[in-house]
Amino acid sequence: MLVNYYRKLEKGFTLIEVMLAMAVFSIAGIAILGTAETNARNLGYLESKILANWVASNQLVEITLDDTWPPKNNKKGKVELAGLEWFWQQKVVKTTDKDMRAIVLEVRLDEKDPSALTSLMTYISKQNK
Fold first, then answer.
1. What is the mean pLDDT of residues 33-50?
2. pTM
């Protein structure tokens, strides 16, 4: 008699409880997948930014080693790094000191892209030339 009593108390999950648990787990899974996708996209963007900064740094070093004064304005070029072709453009900006110029170097993955992926600036002086 006691065995029958315990069997009546043993009940499984109802259909509503199972469906509610599945709904909670599916919402959590969708949220996790969305976060993983966003992180993967941001990782690719950060990698591009780092490589673009390397390209810009390398070009600024070349500019500082060049002996011409003043540096050529709107000079453009392309370089390959990490299997990608990068397009760069240097802009020379006059400063209040006639013996000093600011050099802004912009780097893009697409030459026609209106916004640069990165932009670095340095100053050079006539005394160094």
1. 89
2. 0.69
